[in-house]
Each structure stands twice: as C-alpha cells, then as structure tokens.
Amino acid sequence: MFRTALTMLTLASALMLPTFPVWANVDDDIDQDDGTLGAEGLHIPEPMAFDLVRPLGATQGELEVNALAIHGLGSNQVEWAPEIEYAVMDGLAFELELPMQNAVIEEYKVAAQGTLGRHGQFIHGWQIIGRHLKHNVLPSQDQVHNADIEPEGATLVTGAQYSADVLYIAGYRFNARWSTLNMLGLRGNHLGKYLTGYGLANLNLFYTLDDNRALGIEINNEFDDRQWNVAVTPQLHWNYSDRISMQFGPGMVKSQGSTAQWNVSCRLIYTF
To answer: Which of 93, 161, 185, 224 to pair with 197, CA 20 to 30 A apart?
Structure first.
C-alpha cells in the first residue's frame, strides 16, 4: 500500500507538471515569512500533521508559535500540541513542543532542523526529533502518529520512555501551482529499554490557489517488517494576514488489520 501511495503521488505530480508555466523567479512573488506558504521563496507549503521546524531556508531570527488540534470523531478527547519554533541562524531552527490530551501533558518534544541547500526549484534538508513520553506505548500496539500526537486508543503502561526520529526532507516546486514536500526517515522507540524501529514516510502534494491559499493532500506512513500504518489528511491552508495562518482538514488513520478512524484537524500559526 505504501508503494502504491508513493507511485500515485509521483504520477499525479508528473501529469500536472505541464499545466502551468514555471515561475522564472519565485522569490520575487513570495514573502519568506509566510507561515504555511514558505520554504525560502519557493512557496512550498508545510504539511499540517507532520510539520516543519520553520520552512526550509528560514533566516536567522524568525520566530513562530503554533498549535495543532486533532479531534477524533466519536470521541470526547482533543489531542493538541502547542509549540514554539525559532531560527537561531540561517538555515537552522529549533522547536519545543508539548503534546497534550485535553489539559494533560503527554510528552515533551524537542526538534532541530537544518537546510542543506537550494538548487533552482529544489530545496532539501534534515530534521531530528527527540521525545520524552510520560507513558510507554506497548510496541505490539503502536499505531501511526498523526503528526506530533500519540495515537488515540493506544495501550499505555506506566513509566516514561524516549524516542527519536531522523528524517531527510526534500521539496520541489514544479510550476506556479504544483509543489511537493516529502520526508523519509527512521524512528527509534523505547530507547534504553527494548528498542523498536520504524520507517517513516511523509508524502505531500500541494496545489497553490493564490498567494494566501493552498490545497494539499498529506500521507503519513509508519511501517516495519510486520506492521503498516497510514494517516491521510486532505487540507486547506489559508493565510489571513502576513502573520496569522490556519491549516484545516478531515483525516483518516488506519492500522493494518483494523478499521479506519476518522478525525478533524486544525493548526493555527502566528509568526513574529
């Protein structure tokens, strides 16, 4: 299924490539401080569920606060995660995040992200994420992370645990309308106890409506040799002003061998 999703995303991008002329100079049209429509002037949106630590190519001094909220349909719980992101130097940013369930902090998360370079319409970088969870999620019942928040319904046991993600990020602007941003990496859970490893793939295809709005489809995959999990999130990105942005969309989370769970997600963003 993962290979099928990746193939469909690649084919869709290729088919739409000739539809619009490529911008001769994207930087002339786009503000780098756009909360959801950034990436060093390339106007490549950020995913909503598995977001970046500031857009790739962020300049020193950029500061952002945002919060993601996910409400599972049929549930009275709200998973949400306030965070702060700051670029300490050109191309290097750090993040502090507090994933919560209702008013209870579930984990502490820190992340670092660097930009490796830009080559025409292509930009790439890396991201490292560290988590200190207040509870253990049993390895046999791990479910896909819909972004930065622990999956609803996972079995918890007492005692803290640590996990880490290492990801490669690549973004490409095909033309004035179509762009893609993808992350591939590994996650290590239960560090220092009984280490379990997972492959990660975050695949995104975006259609830019205008300078303030974009549509996207985000596919989060987590997999190993025994289990495969996926979260699919269609989304709308809307810049209300130079500083205030919103991302919104329905979503579906499915683990191999289980029924799909539906949710609604929203991320509010303020850049300074």
So the answer is: 93
Question: Is the model's pTM score more than 0.85?
Answer: no
List C-alpha distances in Å: 267 to 80, 81, 170.
9, 9, 22
**Residue 43's pLDDT band (cuts 50, 70, 90):** confident
The predicted pLDDT at position 225 comes to 73
Tens of pLDDT, residue by residue over 214-254, are 999 999 999 887 888 999 999 999 999 989 999 999 999 99
Q: Name the superfamily (CATH) of residues 2-271.
A: monomeric porin ompg (2.40.160.40)
DSSP calls for 179-234: EEEEEEEEEEESTTSS-EEEEEEEEEEEEEEETTEEEEEEEEEEE-SS-EEEEEEE
